[in-house]
Amino acid sequence: MSGSGTTAGDDPLQTAVWRLRSRGCWTDAAALLAPLAAEPAVALERVGLLVERCMFTGEGWADAEDALRVAEAGARDDEERGGAACERGRLAYAATTLGVRDRADEARTALGRAAALLSPTSPQRPLLDFRRGLVAEHIADSPQAARAAYQRAHEGARARGDVLLLSFTHHHQSRLALREGELLQAQQGFAEALRIRVDLGYLIGVAPALAALADCEPEQEAARLLAEARRLFRMLGGVPVWLADRLAPKFPAQTDDEGRTDQAVTTPPKPAA
């Protein structure tokens, strides 16, 4: 699930879903779609909401699995089956990187199935490429493959006008750039990801963007960015969970939103995006 915000001319239901989603009210957003869930496209949208809830909160796995089975059972063609497989891969990725259960093989298999089902021109291709990049980076530890997948996703998102997905591709390409010491490139990408999320009102994605940008800034500016990220994190009730050690530390060691360790920790969390 991606999306690019809403405008005054959008469908009222989709506007309401977006507003709830962007503020972390995934269950309420999914409930709005429940009466229409017999439609495969709506069923898949519900899955996206509930999987995103898992990724940001570490909760709601059973609800996401149930919604996913409904979407898989109702899929009528390769496009719909590929979309469901893409969400299964995303759910398995989230469970693996958040340490709930090792489902790495399932994530790879499901995303591979999605790639086989979705045509090269499918509107879901950019999102699939992005998720394959996540698996390459955080499960396979293959930054080169991740970079290629993120670039494909970035180009596809730009061609389709998927602004929210662009914020994620900017963010994750910048994390790879920072990993390689390209500070200016990383700073520019993180700043653009932050700008997009603020412009769209994607509140749940602002704290991770602030925290990431803080890694590229001088100490005083970094402290200001982290203070704002901490405020949002608390306001949203500790979302996203992978920022907890950094923004609400319970132990001396801290990790950033990509699981990069400032001090030694045991099994730091990986990103869920």
Structure description:
By secondary structure, the protein is mostly helical. It has helices spanning 12-22, 26-33, 40-57, 61-74, 78-97, 104-117, 125-138, 143-160, 163-179, 183-200, 206-214, 219-235, 244-247. Helix 3 packs antiparallel against helix 4 (61-74), helix 8 runs antiparallel to helix 9 (163-179) and helix 10 (183-200) packs antiparallel against helix 11 (206-214). The longest helix is centred in the N-terminal third of the chain and has 20 residues, at 78-97. The radius of gyration is 18 Å and the shape is globular.
Low-confidence stretches: 251-269
Radius of gyration: 18 Å
Summarize model confidence as the mean pLDDT: 90
Please state roughly what percent of the residues sit in beta strands, choosing from under 5%, 5-15%, 15-25%, 25-35%, 35-45% or over 45%: under 5%
Form type? globular
What assembly state would you assign to the polypeptide chains in this entry? single chain
Structural class: mainly alpha
Helical stretch count? 13
Listing every helix as H and every strand as E from the N terminus to the C terminus, the arrangement reads: HHHHHHHHHHHHH
- What profile does the largest beta sheet have? none
- What fraction, in percent, of the residue positions are helical? 55-70%
User: Gap between N and C termini, in Å?
Assistant: 11 Å
In total, the number of strands is 0
